[in-house]
From TrEMBL:
Specifically methylates the N3 position of the uracil ring of uridine 1498 (m3U1498) in 16S rRNA. Acts on the fully assembled 30S ribosomal subunit. The gene is rsmE. This is Ribosomal RNA small subunit methyltransferase E. It holds the Pfam family Methyltrans_RNA. NCBIfam families: PRK11713.1-5, RsmE family RNA methyltransferase. One of its GO terms (molecular function) is rRNA (uridine-N3-)-methyltransferase activity. One of its GO terms (biological process) is rRNA base methylation. Keywords: Cytoplasm, Methyltransferase, rRNA processing, S-adenosyl-L-methionine, Transferase. It comes from Clostridium aceticum.
Length: 252
């Protein structure tokens, strides 16, 4: 069953109806070719998901009747934020897609000393972020997420570190770390009180030594991913999958 996201304001409980507007209207009618009587999954992105039956389709909206209402059950019990140094070409799109599938809460693109990608101006930056957000939306639909991860506008490493002080735990994948792994770090902590975790991933070529020192000064724990060097587009969802497994979100 196809899944769509709406806002809480689009759900009308007194009349037991849901209104879908925007680009999804064309997708439902022209691409999927759905019609009156067909069922859809709809999520309000906050607390509930619904089974809706199409009552009417117009150019502006799709009107559904609510057939069933259920609390969200597909979200992780912890909030995980990915601080990803922006890689070249379409690697960022792959990172957003796969970490969305695995339950990421938000993605913060960061600009580091070895970041190659440059933005022409603010308009170019906004266009890129809009593209990344659309990828997150589509991945959230496909993976039956209850919430859409938010892709933030790119910021500097120092700005990201300041923002990350709100997290309960921050960890950075570092190729020169040889002692502490993700499992060992989590085992040494009282994870019952950890609700918000930041994952830090460097660009192609990795973080510079000065950046690592700066990050560690902000109480970001370095972790090893083993004896092999992973690409930047692989490291993020490797850390996320290990961490989610250890905290019980993957595999029971």
């Amino acid at each position: 069953m196809n899944r769509f996201f709406v806002t809480a304001a689009d759900v009308h409980l007194p009349t037991k109806e849901i209104t879908i507007v925007g680009e999804d209207v064309k997708h439902i009618s022209k691409v999927l070719r759905l019609s009156t009587g067909d069922l859809l999954e709809v999520c309000d992105g906050e607390k509930y998901e619904y089974i809706g039956k199409i009552k009417n389709i117009s150019k502006q909206e799709v009107l559904l009747s609510i057939e069933d209402q259920m609390p969200l059950k597909t979200e992780a019990p912890i909030e995980v934020i990915l601080y990803q140094s922006i890689p070249k070409a379409t690697k960022m799109e792959l990172i957003i897609q796969k970490t969305t599938e695995m339950g990421i809460k938000s993605i913060v693109p960061i600009i580091t000393n070895r970041t190659v990608v440059q933005f022409k101006d603010d308009k170019d930056k906004e266009k890129k972020v809009d593209r990344w957000q659309k990828i997150a939306i589509e991945a959230a639909k496909q993976s039956k997420r209850g919430r859409i991860p938010h892709v933030e506008s790119p910021i500097s490493l120092k700005e990201a570190l300041q923002q990350a002080q709100e997290n309960d735990l921050n960890m950075i994948a570092y190729e020169r770390e040889v002692v502490q792994g993700i499992k060992g770090l989590l085992t040494s902590l009282d994870t019952k009180n950890i609700k918000k975790i930041g994952i830090w991933i460097g660009p192609e070529g990795g973080f510079e030594e000065g950046e690592i020192d700066l990050v560690k000064d902000k109480n970001v724990h370095s972790v090893t991913l083993g004896p092999r060097i992973l690409r930047t587009e692989t490291a993020g969802f490797t850390v996320l999958s290990i961490m989610m497994y250890e905290l019980g979100d993957l595999g029971g």
